[in-house]
Amino acid sequence: IKKWKKYVLYFGRLTKEKRVDLVIKSFEKSGLQNFKLLIIGVGEDEERLKKIAENCEKEIKFLGFVSTEKLIEYISHASFTITLEWADYNLTVYESIALGTRVIFGKNFEEEPFDLPFIKSKMLFYVKPNIDEVSNLMNEVSKLPDVKLEDYNFIRNYNWDWYVNNFLMLFEDE
Q: How distant is the alpha carbon of residue 4 from its chain centre?
């Protein structure tokens, strides 16, 4: 799987609950050399986030809204994506993994969720959402070798049908 290996990607709404400010601050603190942080999305928090990014020495680009085709291209070529708020049924996680891209995911809950196969495949990495732990994990994930074909083939078994069935099980009475 071909990677450009030179950028970290956040994609989603730019609102406070998404913790994009934490993504920016963690990226700034990380030891990532020659990497960019690309932020795709729009929202009410955009201007505040741009002001935070202005004070950073590392390169951070806000790309706004992009077409689905462009988004797929950006996700496919990212070194990894990051999302620190568990919302939208973690669609950003599944979209990234489906395109063969690793994900750093904010762990905001006590129990492990049902996406353990992704952890075993070294595609999904949980982190407590704080600057030190996120920046350290960014460094670690950036040093991993390319996603292996067997890892990618393994996760292909976990498609939308698998996801919906497991999600619906959360609401079933025992």
A: 16
125-135 pLDDT per residue, tens: 888 889 999 99
> Which of 119, 113, 114, 65 minimizes the C-alpha distance to 97?
119
Q: What's the average model confidence in pLDDT over 65-89?
A: 87
Contacts of 4 (CB under 8 A, 6+ apart): 77, 78, 79
At 56, the amino acid letter reads C
Least confident of 65-74, 130-139, 140-149: 140-149
Q: How many alpha carbons lie under 13 Å from residue 130 in its C-beta half-sphere?
A: 3
Around Cβ 120, how many Cβ atoms within 10 Å? 12
Q: What are phi and psi for residue 118, nearest 5 degrees?
A: -70, -30
